[in-house]
Every structure is written in structure tokens, then in C-alpha cells.
Structure to design on (578 residues):
């Protein structure tokens, strides 16, 4: 927690300082009030026989002290709120920036629900702990020190009761903290599981309704929610013992002080005013200890959230470009795979790509065909370094991809992935992800090439139509065409179309291929497809199976010598004929 505080409170340092300063001022004002009260009793009432003027003057001083104490407390709360808000805001920004550096392996390690949970619920718990630290953790020790000094000054014999209570309270608090932390860690994991269940249900609501599985999903969520309830009850059942334990010790001290203090008053070794102020200071001590205990409990509850935030911030991407050349640019679309093998983790037994050798010339159109699971997509993801090869090297423009800065390499490569993603905003705003500086004319031209202009023009707002979150206002085929147009606007050296026309009809697919052939004549084009017709006109077609390249050639060559390709083509053509 304190490591995060040092790093992420720098821009709000003034608020982080003023909060504790005004807390200390508030404590000073509050600490003087019991002393003034004792003067009213001992001097104004007892010694002076009810001197009204003296009592009124001292009473007015108490009112002034209370007023300025309240003002100081309000200012302390204000600056603490400002500082705590900036603290969690900075952490959220840092987490987002860190996630942007993650490679696919890191992203798979932290699913979306747990990331969302960590930047919302966990941040709220950390903010509450931070406010407690900046206010109560300053107030409690300072108030404790002043009050302890005053009770020892008034009667050091009675102060022995306070000295005995401290280690008892400390031991109890230590035992609670040590047991509570792992329980809260488990509670946050249950929250992650519940969020994952909820997100899955909402994302798949159409499938749920289609299969009439609402009851099943309700039961599934109720089970997950019950798990959270049990974990939360188990964690908090220990923490709630803190206050009763402290109150037990505190009231025991009050009873002992009252008993022995009364005897001292009767014996004449202590005045009534001193006893009253002693009780006030003792209450302040006990309240300070209770505040300190609450801070410790709050920090204990938040410590699980701190651990989870640190996991995101400390995660190091396996793909880095620290040693890359800042000035190296991708000059052309040459691509070469040399003895490339790949597996998703070092502990995996089997390579998903094995001994791949392939050279693609700049401007060439390459088609890749293969059965499901033949690692076609994995192969092309090595080009922009979404993954790094486990064995062998990948070259772009004659240089190892690891020699380029990631932003320059990826800026030269456009990908239309299998899972098409659009974002909230208008059609034009989404398309300009490919090129923020593109003109409207360039946007329209890209849409014409991707065969998207027709359906856009039929929409009420045309290019200003809001797509909704995730592009829910367009069909799968329309979404694919918009993603192709977005990639074209990027004007890359290499464009990869990963089964990007699977949701469009054969005629539209054919028109897209013809337009791309004309539009992408100067780009290296890699087309992964299920349809032979989508890659039939390619310069070369790569046949993959089980992570290996089993044949490369033109359509006519493969029809003559490759039985797998010939059977696939004939089957698809029969379907078209029928």
C-alpha cells in the first residue's frame, strides 16, 4: 500500500500534506478543551465559589476551540478526499497504460471480469483505506500522544491502567489482522468469479434466450452469488470482533479509573476537575486506539485489493522492444519465416507450429488454407509480434521483427481478425481507427472497396450512424466489411485478412476480392480463408495441416498434385452448383 502511495500521490502532494496538517490542528484544539473544562470546575466553581464571569470567559474559549476544531476537521476531510481521489485515478490510469503493453499471453492470464473488478471495487476499497491512513492514522497517534502526556501529568498512578491496556489491545488486533487477510483475498476471488458469470450471461443473452436457458443461468448466478456471500461473511465475521473487543477493554479501563479515581478524590490527592479532565483524556486515548484499530482493519481489508492491483502493475509482458532500433522503419512488405516453431507456453509439450519456412515477396497475394486447428491464425500473428516464435526467426522487410519498435512494426501491418471488434461511436469514428487523419473521401473510398458503402448509405445517419457498444447495430457480415475498410484506411505495407469474409455471401465475397486485388496491388496481402474461391486468384496458396506447411503453389498446380486441395475445391464447387 505504501509503495503505491509514494508513487501515485505525487501530483496531489499538497493535498496529501494539508490533510494531515489540518488533522493535527484539529487534534490540538480538541485536546485543549478538557483542560479548559477542568479549569472551569476547579477554578470557576470550586476555588472562586461560582465566578460567573470566569466561567463565561472559559466557556467562550471552549466554544471558540470547538469551532476552529470543526473547521480544521472539515478542511482535513476535504484535502483527504482530493488526495485519495487523485490517488486511485492515477492507479487506474497506470493499470490501463500497463494493460496496453500486455501481449496476448498476459491478457489471457487476466480475464476481462477480474480486470474490471480490480479497477472498480478494489479501487474503492483502496480509496477508503487511503482516507483512513491520511486522516485517522495521523489523528490517532497524535491524539494518543497528547492525551497520554496529559493523563500522566494529572495522575501517573491511574495512568498505569492505560499502560496495561495497550499490550492487550495490540495483541488482539495482531491476531485479528493475521487471520483476516487471507480471508479477504479469497473473498475478492469469489467476486471475480461472480463477475465472470454475469458478463458471460450478458454477452451471450441471445443464445440464452434461444435455448430457453434463463432458469439455468439464474441458478448458475445464484450459486456464484451465494459463494460471494459466504466468503464475505467468513471474512467479515472476524473483523467485526475488533470493535466489541476494544469496547470491552475500554469500558473495563473506565470502570477501574472511576473506582480508583473516586478513592483519590475522597483522599484529597485529586480534584474533581482533574478527574473529569482525566476521564475526557482517557476517552480520547481509547477512541484513538479504536480509530487506529479501525485503520488497521481497513488496510487489512484493502491489502487484498492492493495485492491484486500490484499483480496488474508488476506483470511484465514477454514481448518487449527495449533493444529495438528507434530509427528503423518497415520499408516494404517482404515477409519470411525461417525454421519457425511455436508453442503458447514454455511448459507445453507440443508445438502448435513446427519447422515453418515461407518467403513472401512484397506486393504478393498469399492465400492460406487448412483445416480448423491447423494454426493458420497463429502463423500470421507472429508477423506483428502478437506472439513471438519459440524457435526460429520471422523477418519483415529483410530485418528480424525483434529489431523494430513495436509501434512501427504494427503500424506497417493491418489485421482483420477472426473476431471483429467495433467500438462505441459512429461508423466514421470507427473507420478512422485505421487512420485518424483520413479525409471523408478516403473513408468512402475504403468502404467502396470493402463493399460497405451500399448498406451505410441506406442508414438514416449514413457515416454518422452510432454503432452502439461492440457494433450491435450491424450484422456480422456488415461488421466484417467495416473492419476491412478500417484496415484499408491504414494503408499498411502488409495486410492480413483472417477469414474476414466468412459472414458474407459468395457474390459479395467475390466483389470484395476483385476490389482488394486492385486496391492492394502494392501491398503484401495474406488471406486466410475457408473458401477456395477467396484465395483462388492468389499468387500462391499455402496448405497447412497440424501446424505444418504441407504444400505451396498456384491454384492450377495444387489442383493437379494436391488431393486435399482438389477434394476441398470440388466439394465447395458442388455446393455452389447445387
Amino acid at each position: 500500500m505504501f509503495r503505491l502511495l509514494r508513487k501515485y500521490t505525487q501530483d496531489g502532494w499538497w493535498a496529501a500534506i494539508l490533510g494531515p496538517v489540518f488533522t493535527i490542528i484539529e487534534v490540538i484544539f480538541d485536546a485543549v478543551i478538557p483542560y479548559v473544562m477542568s479549569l472551569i470546575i476547579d477554578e470557576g466553581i470550586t476555588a472562586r465559589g461560582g465566578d460567573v464571569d470566569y466561567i463565561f470567559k472559559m466557556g467562550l474559549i471552549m466554544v471558540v476551540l470547538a469551532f476552529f476544531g470543526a473547521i480544521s476537521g472539515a478542511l482535513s476531510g476535504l484535502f483527504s478526499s482530493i488526495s485519495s481521489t487523485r490517488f486511485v485515478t492515477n492507479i487506474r490510469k497506470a493499470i490501463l497504460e500497463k494493460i496496453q503493453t500486455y501481449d496476448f499471453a498476459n491478457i489471457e492470464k487476466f480475464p476481462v471480469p477480474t480486470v474490471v473488478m480490480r479497477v472498480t471495487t478494489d479501487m474503492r476499497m483502496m480509496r477508503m483505506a487511503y482516507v483512513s491512513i491520511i486522516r485517522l492514522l495521523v489523528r490517532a497517534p497524535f491524539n494518543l500522544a497528547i492525551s497520554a502526556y496529559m493523563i500522566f501529568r494529572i495522575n501517573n498512578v491511574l495512568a498505569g491502567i492505560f499502560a496495561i491496556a495497550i499490550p492487550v489491545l495490540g495483541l488482539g488486533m495482531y491476531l485479528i489482522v493475521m487471520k483476516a487477510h487471507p480471508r479477504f483475498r479469497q473473498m475478492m476471488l469469489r467476486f471475480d468469479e461472480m463477475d465472470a458469470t454475469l458478463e458471460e450471461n450478458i454477452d451471450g443473452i441471445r443464445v440464452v434466450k434461444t435455448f430457453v436457458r434463463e432458469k439455468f443461468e439464474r441458478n448458475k448466478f445464484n450459486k456464484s452469488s451465494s459463494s460471494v456471500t459466504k466468503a464475505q461473511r467468513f471474512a467479515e465475521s472476524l473483523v467485526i470482533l475488533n470493535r466489541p473487543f476494544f469496547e470491552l477493554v475500554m469500558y473495563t479501563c473506565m470502570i477501574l479509573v472511576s473506582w480508583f479515581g473516586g478513592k483519590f478524590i475522597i483522599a484529597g490527592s485529586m480534584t474533581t476537575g482533574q478527574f473529569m479532565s482525566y476521564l475526557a483524556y482517557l476517552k480520547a486515548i481509547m477512541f484513538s486506539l479504536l480509530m487506529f484499530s479501525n485503520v488497521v482493519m481497513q488496510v487489512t481489508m484493502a491489502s487484498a485489493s492492493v495485492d491484486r492491483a500490484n499483480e496488474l502493475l508488476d506483470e511484465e509482458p514477454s514481448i518487449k522492444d527495449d533493444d529495438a532500433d528507434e530509427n528503423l522503419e518497415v520499408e516494404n512488405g517482404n515477409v519470411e519465416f525461417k525454421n519457425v516453431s511455436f508453442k503458447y507456453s514454455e511448459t507445453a509439450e507440443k508445438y502448435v507450429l513446427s519447422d515453418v519456412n515461407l518467403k513472401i515477396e512484397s506486393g504478393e497475394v498469399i492465400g492460406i488454407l487448412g483445416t480448423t486447428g491447423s494454426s493458420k491464425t497463429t502463423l500470421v500473428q507472429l508477423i506483428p509480434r502478437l506472439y513471438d516464435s519459440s524457435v526460429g526467426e520471422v523477418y519483415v522487410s529483410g530485418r528480424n521483427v525483434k529489431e523494430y519498435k513495436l509501434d512501427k512494426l504494427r503500424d506497417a501491418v493491418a489485421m482483420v481478425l477472426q473476431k471483429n471488434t467495433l467500438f462505441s461511436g459512429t461508423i466514421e469514428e470507427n473507420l478512422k481507427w485505421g487512420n485518424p487523419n483520413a479525409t471523408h473521401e478516403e473513408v468512402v473510398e475504403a468502404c467502396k472497396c470493402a463493399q460497405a458503402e451500399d448498406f451505410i448509405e441506406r442508414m438514416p445517419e449514413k457515416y454518422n450512424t452510432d454503432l452502439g457498444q461492440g457494433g450491435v447495430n450491424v450484422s456480422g457480415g456488415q461488421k466484417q466489411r467495416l473492419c476491412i475498410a478500417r484496415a484499408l484506411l491504414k494503408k499498411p505495407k502488409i495486410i492480413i485478412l483472417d477469414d474476414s469474409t466468412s459472414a458474407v455471401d459468395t457474390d459479395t465475397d467475390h466483389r470484395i476480392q476483385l476490389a482488394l486485388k486492385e486496391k492492394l496491388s502494392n501491398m503484401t496481402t495474406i488471406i486466410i480463408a475457408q473458401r477456395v474461391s477467396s484465395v483462388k486468384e492468389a499468387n500462391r496458396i499455402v496448405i497447412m495441416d497440424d501446424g505444418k506447411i504441407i504444400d505451396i503453389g498456384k491454384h492450377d498446380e495444387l489442383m493437379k498434385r494436391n488431393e486435399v486441395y482438389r477434394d476441398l475445391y470440388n466439394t465447395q464447387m458442388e455446393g455452389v452448383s447445387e
Summary: The CA atoms of residues 101 and 153 lie 60 Å apart. The longest helix spans residues 52-101. The beta strands are 335-342, 353-360, 365-370, 391-396, 399-400, 413-416, 494-498, 524-528, 540-545, 548-553.
